[in-house]
Amino acid sequence: MGHSTESSPSYEPSPRTSSEKYEYCSVFGEVFEGLDDLERRLLLFFAVFPVGSVVKKRVLKNWWDGEGLLELSAEKTAEGILEEMMGRCLVEAVREGRRLVGFKMRPFVHFAVVARALEEGFFAFDSKGNPTVELLRSSRGCLVKTEEGSSSLDKLEDDLGSALGFQTLFNVSEPYPDFKLDFFLKLKRLKVLSLGKWQSSSGHHIEVDNTEFLKGLKSMRDLRLFSLRGISRVSELPDAVCKLGNLRILDLNACHNLEALPDGIGSLKKLIYLDISECYLLDCMPKELALLTELQVLKGFLIVETTFRESCSFTDLAGLKKLKKLSVYANRNDFPRADELGIFQKFERLRKLSISWGGRAILKKTESQSAVDSNTTAVVDPKEAAVVVENEKNVALNIKHDQEDHVSAAERNSWDSTKERSVGDVVAGDEGLKRARESADAGEIIEESCATTGGSSRTLVGKYKPTERMDGSAELGAGNCSRSFSGQDGDEQQNVTTEAEDTTTQVGAGHEPEQGRRMDKSRKAKVLDTRIRKILSKLPTVKQQNEADPTSGEVFKALEKLDLQCYPNESSPDWLKPGNMKSLIKLYIRGGKLHDFGETQNDDSWSVEILRLKFLDELEMNWDDVQALFPKLIYLEKFECKNLTTFLGDLNGVWVKRS
């Protein structure tokens, strides 16, 4: 092709023999018979892929949506159309075991589809049948590197005037999609810009010399799909990306050199699909991710605790209530925590979830940090404890507080000096004190004892005396109390004493007229005692919340598929229970230290039908346990699980239930 701007000879399918011609005509007529207009158009997209290629469903669905032919939210419609195509033997599903890999088209069907695409001007083809760029024939251009070494990119950039007409640019096989900025600025009508990989294999390398040309994105106001999937040497994205107000799909998967996402990503209000998985140099998430409330697919969200840069936390995602598919990388062993499970409960449409543990944050832990189990009591910073306190109050009581519960200096000191006092004790104790302060009259004496988890006891004794605030209103003193905290074993006691011990009300000579009033106050104290008991009984400790669901009811209500990778603990997480995910059909656990599935109730069994266990050296189960836990199981696959010796299955570790 070189740099010539002349039109290439038209590609005409021409069967060589009479039998081929007869078979071709027969297939050509039958392929499109019975399909409606939309189905025929969607079928033509297969024409650009080489014969015999396996195309993933994701590629087809995103492209269809990018062109406005199909909304991603209508997933069943997309699947229904593909099933219709399979039913007519136009495409066939490619599977590895029971896992769907993609779809491919039979050669003669592909031949007929190419002919129809050429006839209708759906795509342009060169004389050898390669898809190419030819605006006079089609507004869809394909970037192709031929076996002879010529590139359709050269031809495209030689004709700047043609840029205005293109609505789609799709990279079929161009390994170096480097554009000139002036050409990119002219692609104002573009709806689909897919420069990355569509192939699933790792053998197709794509890279760019620089990303200067991406500044031209600012002129693509109609762009709906933008893909840099698998492109090397993309270290950053220009701010122009944030001006794509109509963008629905942003695919940055496996951009291994990408170091950061634009801070203004929250301006992409119509974004429904974001894939940042396998971008290993990303170390935090921009805060504005939480503003993408239309997201239905989010892949590669990073759970990280960092102090050097403000990052979007998982709890910030509470507003993404349309999520259907989510994958996260967790740099904390204790993910998800109680408050994060509460966020999961808000994702009522979530059907597919993948969690991978591991990363720099875990690997850089010191020995002393690693020695502390995430479920045991630890000394915490008061500010961090206040956050936990507030989250637990919202989950446990479902109430709103007008102001924070401030902690006195004496109480802060007690936090630093106490080794056996849990954050849960702080929550229950301080919440009880606050309610007591709000309800008690000046001068009342309140005593409260309540049982906590494991048999520990708590006594609150205090005399509350109003003090004047700057606005003239009365405020009950926070430090006028004495508390006694006992450890779970009752062998260690931490006392926190304030000035209130020395100022308790005494009844002496000359105070007889006050005796009746004191008896009335005593009765009030008993009533208040009962109220405080009820409040404290509703406030679970952190340990209790780690041992049981922090929310009432099912956490993962619509979840159908759960994929856990590199789970870091031996015991099963408390949230991994059948009652938390009653709709679960597929459960995959790959890698990690999992030893067992924990204890379940006799009548509590999984609804899982497909179970995959891989690289689990510590897992110990027998076949009877599997049948009891998973009574609906129809397919099981185990690989590199040395202790699962009693499992049934073939030489590949696959067991299929026979009807």
TrEMBL record:
Keyword match Repeat: yes
InterPro entries xref list: LRR_dom_sf, LRR_R13L4/SHOC2-like, WH-like_DNA-bd_sf
Pfam families xref list: LRR_14 (PF23598)
Gene name of the record: LOC116189636
Spans annotated as Disordered: 405-424, 470-524
Compositionally biased spans, kind Polar residues: 481-507
Basic and acidic residues biased stretches: 405-423
Domain Disease resistance R13L4/SHOC-2-like LRR: 187-363
Highest taxon above the source species: Eukaryota
Protein name: Disease resistance RPP13-like protein 4 isoform X2
An example Gene Ontology biological process: defense response
Lineage of origin: Eukaryota, Viridiplantae, Streptophyta, Embryophyta, Tracheophyta
Record keywords, A-Z: Plant defense, Repeat
Organism this protein belongs to: Punica granatum (Pomegranate)
Gene3D superfamilies, A to Z: Ribonuclease Inhibitor, Winged helix-like DNA-binding domain superfamily/Winged helix DNA-binding domain
